[in-house]
Each structure stands twice: as structure tokens, then as C-alpha cells.
Amino acid sequence: MKTIALISTAGGAGRTTLAASLATLLARRGRDVVALDFDPQNMLGAYLGLDTLAAEGIGETLVDPSRAWHESTWRNDDGVLFVPHGNLTLAQIAESDARLAAHPRWLEHAIRDIGLPETGVVLIDTPRYPSAHADHAARAADLVLAVCPPEPAACATLVARLPALRESCADVRLVVNRLNPARAMQRDALAMLRAATAMPVAQRIHLEASMPEAFSHGAWLFDEAPHSQASHDLHGLAQHVDAWLPALTTSEAA
Predict the structure, then answer these.
(1) What was the pLDDT predicted at 252?
(2) pTM of the model
(3) 3-class SS of residue 4
(4) N or C: which end of the chain has fewer CB within 10 A?
């Protein structure tokens, strides 16, 4: 079993959208997939089919260790096992942050209880980095996908935070999201990012105006617009991750 954290150092990078899309595409490739929402915003379930925000989840276990987080899981139509964060109050979020600070390997130990096969994968959605939740996710991960829109402020923030992120996880790869190659400013920002970090690029995902509309009525862009550039890019990201994971056996891939 491998663990992948999707992390961004800027708000609005599209991290949750990518986590849900990647989980679904990997499940369709025959992988055993767990999508874990470790963001107190608790929004990942909305992308995976929930009509309302999940009331309980892994966040409840942080506040009350006697609660079993795996009792709140559910599986969507594509076979993704979803672990919600849960809807915590501000006081509970502060309490959960304190517990994470006191137990630096808490999430890593919690993930061990999932018990996926060797070829399975846990995808973790996180709040903006740096934060206690995102740092735990990075330290629990075998691979970090650093999601960054090609904007100067977002790229500069990633450059500044990258050394600390690499201390938490040795394998950090870049996902450029919402790319509009017609904008010269974005091309310049990407050139700066490549020069400053020499990061391996997992995938560039082009801006697609119809993506929010697809999600709004419970559909996937790669189903509604399979020939769009963004759909092609999302499949490319799934292929990149699938190739990184241990190979499926013939029976698993069937």
C-alpha cells in the first residue's frame, strides 16, 4: 500500500478537485483506492457523491480517541472508499491541531489500520500548507503531489515552502493545475518555478471552464467531455501515478 498526499501552498489551487478525480480514475484502472479527507473544510465528500457535508469522520477521532473513524467510511459508485474528515467546531479544530502537535506520527499510524493490498493507494486531501494537518499528511506520504496554479504568487510560495516540504517527504512532484498557455505571465511563472526548484513534473492540467459545471450536477469532466484537453491531462496524471505504484496482478487488473 502506498500513500499520496495532495498539497498546495496557495489557496484555490484545485487540490480537492484533483484528489477526487485521481481517486476515481485510479479506481477505474482496478486499483484499491481510499480517499482520505484530512482537511477540516470537509469538502472532499461533495466531489465524491455526498449530498451533505459528512458529520463524522477521522477528525472526530482526533478529538475523541475512543471514536473509531473507520465506522464513518462509505464507498462511491466507482469503488472509491471515502474517509470523511467530519464537521468539527472551531474549538474542536484547535483541539485536533493540539493533538497532532503532540503526536507527530498520528496520521501515519491511523493509515496503517486501513490494510489495503500492496497495490492499493491512499490519497490524502489536505488544507493549505503549512498547517498541522498538511504536515502530517506529508510525513505519512510516500509521494507528495504539490498542486500549484501557474501564477507568480503561488509559484513563489511553493519555492519558499519546498525545503520544509521535502524534509517531510523525499519524493515531491509538481502538478501544474489550471494552465492557460496563452497567458505570458503563466509561462514566465512556470519558467521561474522550474529554474528555482528543478522539480519533476507529474502533469500539467489545462484550464477547463466546464469543469465546475460538470461537478455541479454530479458528473466527471472526463465523462462529460472526454476529448477535452483537461480530460486528457487528468488521465495523464492517473497514468503517471499508476506507473509509480506497484504493478497490478493479472487478476487485479481484470
Answers:
(1) 62
(2) 0.94
(3) strand
(4) C
